[in-house]
Design goal:
The structure holds two protein chains of two kinds. Chain A has 13 helices and twelve strands. By secondary structure, chain A is an alpha+beta fold. Chain A has a domain of 104 residues: 2-Layer Sandwich (Enolase-like, domain 1), CATH 3.30.390. Chain A has a five-stranded antiparallel sheet. In chain A, helix 5 packs antiparallel against helix 8, helix 11 runs antiparallel to helix 12 and helix 12 packs antiparallel against helix 13. The longest helix of chain A is centred in the C-terminal third of the chain and has 18 residues. Chain B is α+β, with helices and mostly antiparallel strands. Among the domains of chain B are: 154 residues, Aldehyde Oxidoreductase, domain 4, CATH 3.30.365; 246 residues, Aldehyde Oxidoreductase, domain 4. Chain B is built from 19 helices and 30 strands. Classes of the chains: A alpha+beta, B alpha+beta. Chains A and B meet through helix 13 of A and helix 4 and helix 19 of B.
């Protein structure tokens, strides 16, 4: 870990301004991810701008949807009755994340910016295009069991690690971003993340100084009947091998609307519109689910040790859909 | 049986009772000082810089930037580190230094493994040292490393001996090959294991303090202060009395702290170089490349049996990875040779050198993986014949040790099977595999036999009894966190006839009477016997005083006619004639009296010979008349979600026959701990080493998975009462390792019973379970 300066921001504008003028500055809220990255010398920051005094709080449910302040803690949102009741997939994805201690510290905005657990990225002794552009990607033919089968490139197959984001992209969440000028813009979460392509070090659309201030999720019938299923190497406190966030609106046995996204398999949270489309208008049966789930992995490009994810992803979708349809 | 006195249960005694830990309050209030918590005056902090590459040469090191950094006192490399008196890089050097690895980092410019220390930065604060270590610039000339024995360039060879020279690399009993060839039932199976790391909660740590130019004190996170002292004496060239090693508390070890590893020696060298005490604690990442691991291995077991399931032949081969210098492989075959009544046996080892550090003993070294192969194959045999898994084991029950021909000193295995089956509800098991379903879960029951040797060892203890009814009892043992402080206090209290709160037990210091490593399950039996014998010595000294004291009722009695119970000395034939020790000591004007005791453990006890203190696998074992082992059985229920490949252990029972149990509560905890250790090894633990870089890709606790609470059900543990007069004065066998032997097989056998699929490639992660279902 390098030496760094620390300051508390009194306003979003101040936070954005300070960070914009220093490209080695970083925001810190819960710090559960950032401090690890700095201790491992994966990220070096000259200045940490503490956001915790900002009032980016609140979990508000209205007829149009849910609005969550970016500084809300994962545990508070995961256990919030409005979320549990109206957006179970969000609650479940949060409570399946990390450990209670980490969830108590980690912020919602920070979770969206957490970085991959790829072992090559996490150890500075290895080459890694995401960490050091152009240095190479040993994961391509190395230890890639946990890595992505979707959205990868020859430069990078690092899996996006967040559970929350899988639920959020499924429900078409949008982010509110604010910059140093105080201007805000709204970006769909699905567009926020960038595929690695030849530039895996560029992970999202954030501009220098720009800050996530809120997450909004539109209200929908399929949000109320939603579920998050996570398959992992142990019962708790492990990253997903495969996960599925699903929502269904079934009326009279027929699926009116559906949302499906996958975690643990993509370089970004991976929504599968083809699966959703194949579900709508069909009876909510296991056969329907199975046929639709097959479409989720049509474009999969597995490596030596992660081929199993093709099968496991489909099964996870089917099981999650069965769970909400029950 | 030895002619020495043996411990007897005194009425109202403390031994065996479920006493809470005597050091529990210290630990939960943070007062217990671990080895990196001694705030010595002038303390400095050491941090290692390690090699990113696994093979090659250091071309140059630039320490200028690091040395200039705030607070930095020294940057030590192979170019400026003070030389050692002896290094372990020759067979003689390795023996003399008692080092686990035949290589000492920072002695040359060669790189043999990733994570090898290349520099040690010493600074005034830990933060300064951490940062400065990142500024050490090393230029390497990298070469292509070999990562494991699977590498096409790796050369397999047959070692003459394995497990640090303690076990022959080839073993034959009868003609196993011929017996196998003619066996009506022939089963051949290959079992593979990943690399495992011990990962104790407390990483390795050292605080080295040169109190004078020729006097060294080291606070060390070790399972054996004396073994660490031995290494440091050899490497520093100091006389033994000038090197003191202290370990008051240990946050686990599991074998990786059973030896003195390079980081400890480097810290001692650094403290010498800077003339101030240096503290060094490994980071979790460094822990993966600093204190050994269980080697990656593949074992093949050929099992021949008669048509009714009686073993006729067992042939075991193992392939594994070793380091560039050593020939370490855990000896899986030992347990296979003796667990059942099999007339023929053959075992051989193959290994290949790779760019990795030397592997080392890890909880039940050899017995854990060996039992996985044997107990899964026994389960296969039972399934093949349609016989209950317990029945197949009873048909092959060894009424003596077939590997040596010796009778057992004691064996309660049949009782363990029976009691375990009863507690578990084994009778409800469907004889057919893959037939029991609960909703979407397949439910299975499995069991396996456990066994662990009573190795040969010895130790010493001192007991000081005060006339006012207090006592201090000491032995240079270590407490891994499993309860040594507590059980020795219990033994001392009973042996001295004192209330528990009047006894203080001290350990973890080479200034105390010498005790062996806490490893190989030898500590409880050796140290408790030493404590008991020290108390006997106190009584013998007091008896001697009494019979010579005109004012004593025992005046002129023969010492051998006098006995002691609860602090009262009296005539065996006339118990009314006697007195308490307090009166006697008062008359003799003694504030206190000290006794010394030597506890022998295992074969050394039975033969009356002093056993070498080294522990596991030494050869005095064969000198005894009896073969000495603990036995037990584990029972496991799993629920398997075949679609998603998820295995959950839903029920657990362990029943053990392990001699005298010193504390029902700490013993239960130890069995639970071992079983969880085993469940981790079978379901989730694995260290991944990149095949091209020979470097670990998951060297942290986020990605090296050990079980969490949610993985573990309620566990039932029972001990079968067992009185063994041959093993030591206390009749204690030790339970640190038998707790995990057979665990992996019990789980895998339950998975087989649930699913009808036999999985032999560990760990049994979701994709293997799921794909087994796809393949059918």
């Amino acid at each position: 870990m390098n030496n760094f300066a620390y300051t508390q921001a009194a306003s979003t504008k101040e936070a954005a301004t300070v960070t914009q003028s220093d490209k080695h500055a970083a925001f810190i809220s819960g710090g559960t991810s950032l401090i690890d990255l700095m201790k491992s010398n994966i990220e070096q920051h000259s200045l940490l701008v503490d956001l915790n005094k900002l009032s980016l709080l609140g979990v508000e449910n209205s007829a149009t949807g849910l609005r969550i302040g970016a500084l809300e803690r994962m545990s508070d949102v995961g256990e919030h009755p409005l979320v549990v009741q109206n957006y179970p997939v969000i609650s479940q994805s949060l409570l399946a994340s990390a450990s209670p201690q980490l969830r108590n510290m980690a912020s919602m905005g920070g979770n969206l910016l957490q970085r991959t657990r790829c072992g090559y990225f996490r150890d500075v002794a290895f080459p890694c295009n995401k960490r050091v552009p152009g240095s190479g990607c040993p994961a391509q033919d190395g230890d890639n069991r946990t890595l992505a089968i979707l959205g990868g490139s020859t430069s990078c197959i690092a899996t996006h690690a967040s559970d929350l984001c899988v639920a959020l992209v499924a429900l078409e969440a949008k982010l509110t971003l604010e910059n140093a000028k105080g201007a805000t813009r709204i970006v769909p979460l699905a567009d926020f993340y960038k595929l690695p392509g030849k530039t895996p070090h560029i992970e999202n659309q954030l501009q220098p100084g720009e800050l996530i201030t809120a997450i909004t999720i539109p209200a929908a019938a399929h949000a109320r009947k939603s579920h998050y299923l996570k398959v992992r190497d142990r019962a708790s406190y492990a990253y997903a091998l495969v996960s599925a966030a699903v929502g269904l609106d079934v009326q009279g046995g027929t699926i009116r609307s559906a949302r499906v996204a996958l975690g643990g398999v993509g370089t970004v949270p991976w929504r599968v519109p083809a699966v959703e489309k194949a579900l709508v208008g069909k009876p909510a049966t296991e056969d329907t689910f199975r046929a639709a789930a097959a479409l989720a992995v049509r474009d999969a490009s597995p490596r030596e040790h992660n081929k199993f994810k093709i099968e496991l992803a489909q099964r996870t979708i089917v099981r999650a859909l069965l769970e909400v349809a029950a | 049986m030895s002619s020495e006195p043996q411990f007897f249960d005194q009425p109202g005694g403390f031994v065996g009772k479920p006493l809470v830990r005597v050091e529990g309050r210290e630990k939960v209030t943070g007062k217990a000082k671990y080895s990196a918590e001694f705030p010595l005056p002038g303390l400095t902090y050491g941090v290692l810089a390690t090699s990113p590459i696994a093979k090659g040469k250091i071309q140059s090191i630039d320490t200028t930037a690091a040395a200039k950094e705030l607070g930095v006192i020294a940057v030590l490399t192979h170019q400026n580190l003070p030389k050692l008196a002896k290094t372990p890089d020759s067979p003689e050097g390795k023996k003399a230094t008692s080092a686990p690895m035949g290589f000492m980092p920072l002695t040359s410019d060669e790189i043999f493994y990733a994570g090898q220390p290349v520099a040690l930065v010493v600074a005034d604060t830990l933060d300064h040292a951490i940062y400065a270590a990142t500024l050490v610039k090393v230029n390497y000339a990298p070469e292509s490393p070999i990562a494991n024995f699977h590498d096409a360039r790796a050369k397999l060879f047959n070692p003459a001996q394995v497990q640090d020279g303690k076990v022959d690399g080839h073993k034959r009993r009868g003609d196993a090959k011929t017996a196998f060839a003619s066996a009506p039932i022939q089963l051949t199976a290959t079992y593979t294991h990943p690399i495992y790391h011990h990962n104790p909660m407390e990483p390795g740590s050292t605080t080295a303090h040169w109190e004078a130019p020729d006097r060294l004190t080291v606070y060390e996170s070790t399972q054996g202060v004396t073994r660490t002292q031995t290494t440091l004496v050899a490497m520093t060239g100091l006389p033994r009395e000038q090197v003191r090693v202290i370990t008051k508390y240990l946050g686990g070890g599991f074998g990786c702290k059973g030896s003195c590893w390079p980081h400890t020696v480097l810290t001692v060298q650094a403290a010498k170089a800077v003339g101030r005490p240096v503290q060094l604690m490994l980071t979790r990442k460094q822990q993966f490349t600093s204190m050994g691991h269980r080697e990656d291995q593949s074992q093949t077991l050929q099992l021949g049996a008669t048509a009714d399931g009686k073993l006729t032949s067992l042939i075991h081969t193992k392939q594994s990875t070793t380091s560039p210098w050593d020939e370490y492989a855990e000896s899986n075959s030992k347990i296979i040779n003796l667990l059942y009544a099999c007339p023929t046996f053959e075992a051989s080892y193959e290994m290949a050198r790779a760019n990795v550090m030397t592997s080392t003993f890890m909880r039940a070294p050899g017995e854990a993986p060996g039992s996985f192969a044997l107990e899964c194959s026994m389960d296969d045999l039972a399934a093949r014949l349609g016989v209950d898994p317990i029945e197949i084991r009873l048909r092959n029950h060894a009424d003596h040790d077939y590997s040596t021909g010796q009778p057992w000193s004691s064996k309660s295995l049949k009782q363990c099977y029976a009691r375990g089956a009863e507690l578990f509800g084994w009778s409800k098991r469907n004889p057919k595999a893959g037939q029991t379903r609960d909703g979407r879960y397949l439910v299975g029951m499995g069991m396996a036999t456990a066994s662990y040797p009573v190795h040969s060892s010895q130790g010493t203890a001192r007991a000081r009894l005060y006339a006012d009814g207090h006592a201090v009892v000491q032995s240079g043992a270590t407490d891994l966190g499993t309860g040594t402080y507590t059980v020795m206090t219990q033994v001392a209290a009973d042996s001295l006839g004192l209330p528990i709160e009047k006894v203080r037990f001290e350990l973890g210091d080479t200034n105390l009477p010498t005790a062996p490593n806490s490893g190989g399950s030898i500590a409880a039996g050796t140290v408790s016997s030493s404590v008991f014998m020290a108390a006997q010595d106190v009584w013998q000294r007091l008896i001697k005083i009494a019979v010579g004291d005109k004012k004593s009722p025992l005046y002129k009695a023969k010492p051998e006619d006098v006995t002691v119970e609860k602090g009262r000395l009296f005539l065996k034939k006339d118990p009314k004639k006697g007195e308490g020790y307090a009166d006697l000591m008062k008359r003799a004007d003694l504030t206190d009296i000290e006794g010394m005791g030597r506890g022998r453990y295992g074969a050394g006890y039975e033969t009356g010979h002093a056993a070498s203190p080294a522990g596991p696998g030494n050869n005095t074992e064969s000198a005894a008349e009896h073969s000495m082992h603990s036995f037990g059985a584990h029972f496991c229920e799993v629920r398997v979600d075949m679609d998603l490949g998820i295995i959950r252990v839903s029920k657990w029972v362990s029943v053990m026959g392990a001699g005298r149990i010193l504390n029902a509560q700490t013993a239960r905890s130890q069995i639970i701990g071992g079983a969880i250790f085993g469940i981790g090894s079978v379901l989730m633990e694995a260290t991944e080493r990149d095949a091209k870089y020979s470097r670990y890709t998951n060297a942290d606790l986020a990605n090296y998975h050990v079980p969490v609470n949610a993985d573990i059900p309620n566990m039932t543990v029972e001990f079968v009462e067992e009185h063994d007069p041959y093993i030591n004065a206390m009749g204690v066998k030790g339970i640190g390792e038998i707790s995990m032997v057979g665990v992996a097989a019990a789980v895998a056998n339950a998975v087989y019973h649930a699913t009808g699929k036999r999985l032999r490639d560990l760990p049994l992660t979701p994709e293997k379970v799921m794909m087994a279902g796809v393949a059918s």
